[in-house]
Specification:
Number of strands: 9
Strand order of the largest sheet: 4-8-9-7-6-5
Shape: elongated
Largest sheet: 6 strands, mixed
Number of helices: 8
Number of domains: 2
Order of helices and strands: HHHHHHEEEEHEEEEEH
Radius of gyration: 27 Å
Helix content: 40-55%
Structural class: alpha+beta
Distance between the termini: 44 Å
């Protein structure tokens, strides 16, 4: 439900704007076109340009639908597809719109013998497109790395004095600061996730970082929220830590390793 609400907040204004542009209106909202001189704007088919930008926005809105589907059915490649479309579509449209005089008006009757001069793309435009492409790729790669690190299960290393959790917002726990380690039969969603104060919760399934819960107070999560059981590490100093994996058996195996090391510490 939360995923649909977030997408709705983002998508509805874009959808309204897309419908507005598809009716051939709203050219003053199009970056680049709205800063041209009157003489320059007169060379372009304003309605055709508005409709093209409207279809672009409609395509972007359509790509948002993959995000709540990912959250609902845990099909994570759809999230990558959505991010890719949102990043690539504007870049592709900029190239399309700036090549081939696509939105220039047709010659007036009687001027058929005058061919529109197809000027090569200026060096400034080429540099601008290159920079835009580079930044888009960097953004996509950065988001992809964050999601990959955020969605993967945490890695828990057990040693004599404590454990080391390697993940986004990973941490090291010394057994001297631990009062109790228990295996709670419920999932984190049932225990009480609370609200994120610092961490990762993009899909609402893999949670990593600090969360504030009404039930348990401040807590550090490295969990897959719908998976049970959950390992709870109660701290004498610091906030309690919760760990769970997609695979329940993995959670139980890790608990056995941590509990045995804690008992022998």
């Amino acid at each position: 439900m939360l995923g649909w609400i977030i997408i709705g907040i983002i998508a509805v204004p874009l959808l309204i704007l897309a419908i507005f542009l598809l009716n051939g209106r709203g050219a003053f909202l199009i970056a680049g076109y709205n800063t041209m001189s009157d003489d320059k704007r007169a060379e372009y088919d304003e309605k055709a340009l508005c409709k093209a930008v409207g279809w672009l926005l409609l395509s972007i809105v359509g790509s948002f639908i993959f995000i709540p589907i990912t959250i609902q059915f845990e099909i994570f490649w759809l999230l990558w597809l959505s991010i890719g479309l949102v990043t690539v579509l504007p870049f592709a449209f900029v190239i399309y719109a700036n090549t081939g005089n696509r939105f220039k008006k047709a010659p007036l009757p009687g001027a058929a013998d005058i061919k529109a001069e197809k000027k090569p793309m200026s060096r400034g435009k080429k540099v601008g497109l290159f920079i835009f492409a580079l930044l888009s790729v960097q953004l996509l790669v950065g988001i992809g790395i964050m999601i990959y690190q955020g969605e993967r299960d945490p890695r828990v290393s057990v040693y004599n004095e404590g454990i080391r959790i390697s993940a986004l917002y990973g941490t090291e726990v010394l057994f001297t600061n631990v009062s109790e380690i228990t295996l709670v039969p419920e999932s984190m969603a049932e225990i009480g996730i609370g609200s994120r104060t610092n961490g990762y919760a993009t899909t609402g399934l893999a949670l990593k970082g600090t969360f504030q819960s009404l039930e348990t107070g401040q807590q550090l999560l490295f969990v897959y929220s719908s998976s049970s059981p959950t390992i709870q590490i109660s701290m004498t100093r610091g906030i309690d830590i919760f760990i769970s994996f997609r695979d329940s058996e993995t959670t139980r195996d890790v608990y056995q390793s941590i509990a045995a090391a804690f008992a022998n510490s």
